[in-house]
Amino acid sequence: MSAVSTPPGTAPPAPARRDAEATKAAILKAARYLLARHAHADITLKAVAERAGVSPPLILKYFGNKDALFARVMSFESDAASLLDAPLEGLGRHMVRHVVHSQRERGADPLLRIAFAPLHGDQGEILRANFRAQVTERLTERLDGPDAGLRAELAVAALLGLGVMYGIARGSHLRATSPDDIADRYGPVVQEQLTPMR
């Protein structure tokens, strides 16, 4: 097989460029994975890079430094936006399906990293503060009626339990069931806190 030649006077074709958004997503996914398994202080940019399949300088190019990268990883802002993106009357089912779909399709739970806050010392406090402001308080603002804050926390607690059973305990029956079926069965449990009987 002969090599492809370049016509005289023309430059060789440029190598295919890596999609910047896909690369950033891979880096964030790798950092989240490691943050759920190791203390923040023990995670190196080299480990993130190896897991993401990129070079450490590429992480620096996109995020600046380790602290800036983990500030993004410790934010729940974009996850909460997707998690809460449904009308209130169907929000419980939507949130359940979103948690399961995220774990199944993306390998990342939108909320579960809060369970590992104790591993991260001072960074754990940042994780907790972000979780409260970006998830539970944001959900509370959408709820009417008494005890809205408590109900929001109970709804989120139900989602965290689902995430633990699916992603950490790896419940075989749960993992063998479709996201829609799980949402149909478990969504009402969450919805009961969002729109309680009057």
Describe the structure.
- The protein has 10 helices and no strands.
- The longest helix has 22 residues, at 121-142.
- The mean pLDDT is 86.
- Helices cover 64% and strands 0% of the residues.
- With 198 residues, the protein is an all-alpha fold.
- The protein has helices at 20-35, 45-52, 56-63, 66-73, 77-83, 91-106, 121-142, 148-168, 172-175, 179-194.
Q: Can you give keywords for this protein?
A:
198 residues; mainly alpha
Low-confidence stretches: none
Q: Give the amount of beta strand, in percent.
A: under 5%
The backbone outline, from C-alpha atoms, is: globular
Structural class: mainly alpha
Order of helices and strands: HHHHHHHHHH
Instruction: Give the strand tally.
Output: 0
Average pLDDT, rounded to a whole number, is: 86
Biggest sheet statistics: none
Q: What's the total helix number? A: 10
Indicate the radius of gyration in whole angstroms: 21 Å
Rounded to the nearest angstrom, the distance between the terminal CA atoms is 77 Å
The percent of residues in helical segments reads: 55-70%
Task: Please specify the SSE layout and strand pairing.
Blueprint: H1 20-35, H2 45-52, H3 56-63, H4 66-73, H5 77-83, H6 91-106, H7 121-142, H8 148-168, H9 172-175, H10 179-194
Short description:
This protein has helices at 20-35, 45-52, 56-63, 66-73, 77-83, 91-106, 121-142, 148-168, 172-175, 179-194.
